[in-house]
Amino acid sequence: MLTMTGHAKKLSDLGIVIPNRLGINRVLQSLPPSYKNFVMNYNMQNMNKELPELFAMLKSAEIEIKKEHQVLMVNKTTSFKKQGKSKGKNKKSGKKAATPPVKPKTGPKPDAECYYCKEKGHWKRNCSKYLADLKSGLVKKKKEGMEHWTTVKNILKYLKRTKDMFLCYGGDQELVVTSYTDASWNTDPDDSKSQSGYVFILNGAAVSWASSKQCTVAKSSTESEYIAASEASSEAVWMKRFIVELGVVPSALDPLVIYCDNMGAIANAQEPRSHKRLKHIKLRYHSIREYI
């Protein structure tokens, strides 16, 4: 540490300016392994100190390191094992330890019941009837482990063969996407706008739906229903492309059915010409004529 201090002073006398960060890094890298904890704490706390302050901190750390070293030297003791005569070794003669007698195997209890003949006083393995039937071939020993393993293999084979199949509970017999559209004319008394909505149903469940206020003012219920059907047709185009890419709906290539409860809106959607009463409707709502 004193050497590094002398080098830093010589460089400053020669007019060479060393950045503070570079000098601190050089000092920390030159420290011995005993300063490992100090370097770790300094980097973790991100201390921005000058070199004189760092040297003062190192002096304090050096004193603490010396104290810890002295404590370790005092507490370090050597344990001595008391030597004595080994027990049980180099004995020429001696009595062996007495071993307890082996208890004879007991037979079945008087109330023990045989699982084969249902009589008491013996077990199945000692049953004369079971042994006679086993010898004659009427009874075979079961290998439950192999039977269970065979059953497991059959189940795994079934799952492997049917991994591309699926079951469909309830709903329609065939997967078909159906859409319903509706509109409520002049529902908002403040801005006189209508409410439109649609829902797409697959196998009896809704998969896509929306309900929102129309951005324009419709002059009649036919016009509001026509706008709602146009918005539903735009969603139907995306829905059809999605189910085609999905590849699980057999009727994906068939036309998608949209139900509307207004005959005027249906007639205007099927009319290729522009009627004078529909000139004020925005052109984007007439896109339904291309989708039908």
TrEMBL record:
SUPFAM superfamilies per the UniProt record, alphabetical: DNA/RNA polymerases (SSF56672), Retrovirus zinc finger-like domains (SSF57756)
Record keywords, A-Z: Metal-binding, Zinc, Zinc-finger
Sequence ranges of Basic residues compositional bias: 82-95
CDD domains linked: RNase_HI_RT_Ty1
InterPro entries: DNA/RNA_pol_sf, Znf_CCHC, Znf_CCHC_sf
Transmembrane segments: none
GO molecular function: nucleic acid binding; zinc ion binding
Domain CCHC-type: 114-129
SMART domains in UniProt: ZnF_C2HC
PANTHER family: GAG-POL-RELATED RETROTRANSPOSON, INTEGRASE CATALYTIC DOMAIN-CONTAINING PROTEIN
Record-given protein name: CCHC-type domain-containing protein
Organism taxonomic ancestry: Eukaryota, Viridiplantae, Streptophyta, Embryophyta, Tracheophyta
